[in-house]
């Protein structure tokens, strides 16, 4: 569990895209952000107050979160100076970088000396159990995709937001590094050892109120040969009551796999549902979430109506329209 | 890669079952075993020559393999004495125990001093790639089960033996600790990090002659919620040309999961085949392997004939009858 609120470290981000982790935190948990820390040459801006470490500390920030990708896979000397000073001033550090904070001797020593915590969210910090398959109380919804990187996290975050706005009880359950930094907790599922994947998802989505929904962030795709095992562990560990199908209509092949076509929404529905009914025979597919960013307004609208007609399910682009019809379908369950 | 041949360490095995790893090595790779080492009170016997370390060394043994489960999860002082002496005499050590050889400081120091290797086969020793899904040359057959621990390793080893006897080119590809100790190499798939599971299976079953078969040891079950992700990684990483369905007809629920019924062979066939056709559209189910140990001869015979009629596939108990009809089906592909 990462302590909030955060000071977002944007470093020397060469462009806004490099700071997309910070953007995700700002978009989805603005209440967790007291400000941003930018170095000379930074070309990203979260429209948060620019703060020194001292100012952020005075404003209550507990953790400096690295919200930016580093160049060349190294933590530069310029960054290091800020990170060391942050530890000295009582901040914890949190990072989703491939190269771990804990592998930097000076940061490790400084954290030990100051009693602060280094959170490398790519690495599990919990000994997860083996899944036991026992039915848990409360409800769970999982986003599954025709491909990787197709909008499952965005869909889950939008659903969580819209369910809360509709007065429902819900918790976004992060399973990837960006999601973990956004919410401050979760399971870095792609880094969990095979035998414990499903158990980690059970651990992440425990017993809860009967009318509470866990909105579980999806990973991979049942049809993506590199990561499908991770997806199936989510389906079997999460024992979802409801599935949302995620799709992007202009993609020509599976991400990173030339020659592999995307499955149809129908094939995804049938496969995911049969597998989800192993732990939860009542599981239903309740809606389709389409990333229509590549389509114009009227094209997007036409595509969504066509999907609704074909599938007999509400279809939305959560970015363009929110998720209201899916929220209503979940409420009705 | 573990150097052969082996001296099998049976320690103070309280009963033959405790030495089942040694039994597997003796049954399937007798040519890898020069002898056995038994301590006082040992109640297991592989019917191999009893040897001292000196005698085994003189007979050419390279590795002392711990073929017995330890009591209470600790490496006892009595065992330790033998293991230390083995390192001194130039043996490598290999173990599938949960508590690792490398975590014993005296063994680690001794191995460093003598230049010997400690093989803990539960732990991956390779940095596996992420799966790329590219089609590889050569053929692959994978055993999938209606449940865990249902005879998939035995089926694969029997198939490999019978294919070789029939003059075909084949390699048993181990994916679990016992299989790795039997063959001296493989991937401890249940200990691989999620993102690299399918890639490790691609690594294990590389390009090969067009008429060569990799016989891949299965793990878990698509219908076992604790381990299904591992199974799917095998299916997608292994890109099998052929699947064998494994079943045990008297089991009342999924192993370790009371309340979870086993799927039918038909449900397993349909699910596994659809998933296997993502990387390999030509994949076929070629036979059924049934563990009939709990049935009498005529019951077993009747059960197998009934499965053959129902499924339209050859059905064998590899222990009772060998795998000849399945070998013929593979040869015909």
From TrEMBL, chains A, B:
Residues 130-327 form the D-glutamate N-acetyltransferase-like C-terminal domain. Residues 38-124 form the D-glutamate N-acetyltransferase-like N-terminal domain. InterPro entries: DgcN-like, DgcN-like_C, DgcN-like_N, P-loop_NTPase. It comes from the Bacteria. Pfam families: DUF1611, DUF1611_N. This is Uncharacterized conserved protein, NAD-dependent epimerase/dehydratase family.
């Amino acid at each position: 569990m990462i302590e909030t609120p955060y000071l977002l470290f944007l470093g020397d981000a060469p462009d806004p895209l490099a700071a997309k982790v910070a953007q995700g935190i700002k978009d989805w948990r603005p209440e967790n952000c007291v400000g941003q820390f930018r170095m000379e040459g930074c070309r990203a801006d979260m429209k948060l107050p620019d703060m020194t470490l001292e100012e952020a500390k005075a404003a209550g920030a507990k953790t400096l979160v690295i919200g930016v990708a580093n160049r060349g896979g190294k933590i530069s000397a310029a960054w290091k100076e800020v990170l060391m000073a942050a530890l000295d001033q009582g901040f914890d550090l949190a990072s989703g970088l491939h190269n771990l904070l804990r592998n930097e001797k000076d940061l490790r020593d400084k954290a030990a000396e100051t009693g602060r915590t280094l959170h490398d969210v790519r690495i599990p910090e919990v000994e997860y159990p083996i899944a036991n398959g026992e039915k848990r109380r409360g409800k769970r919804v999982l986003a599954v995709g025709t491909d990787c990187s197709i909008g499952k996290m965005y869909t889950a975050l939008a659903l969580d937001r819209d369910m809360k706005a509709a007065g429902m009880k819900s918790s976004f359950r992060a399973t990837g590094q960006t999601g973990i930094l956004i919410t401050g907790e979760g399971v870095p599922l792609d880094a969990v050892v095979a035998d414990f994947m499903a158990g980690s998802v059970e651990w992440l989505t425990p017993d809860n109120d009967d009318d509470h929904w866990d909105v579980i962030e999806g990973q991979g795709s049942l049809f993506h040969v590199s990561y499908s095992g991770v997806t199936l562990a989510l389906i079997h560990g999460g024992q979802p009551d409801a599935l949302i199908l995620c799709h992007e209509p202009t993609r020509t092949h599976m991400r990173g796999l030339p020659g592999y076509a995307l499955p149809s929404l129908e094939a995804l529905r049938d496969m995911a549902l049969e597998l989800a009914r192993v732990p939860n025979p009542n599981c239903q597919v309740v809606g389709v979430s389409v990333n229509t960013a590549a389509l114009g307004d009227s094209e997007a609208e036409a595509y969504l109506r066509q999907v609704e007609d074909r599938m007999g399910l509400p279809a939305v682009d959560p970015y363009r329209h929110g998720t209201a019809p899916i929220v209503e379908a979940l409420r009705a369950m």
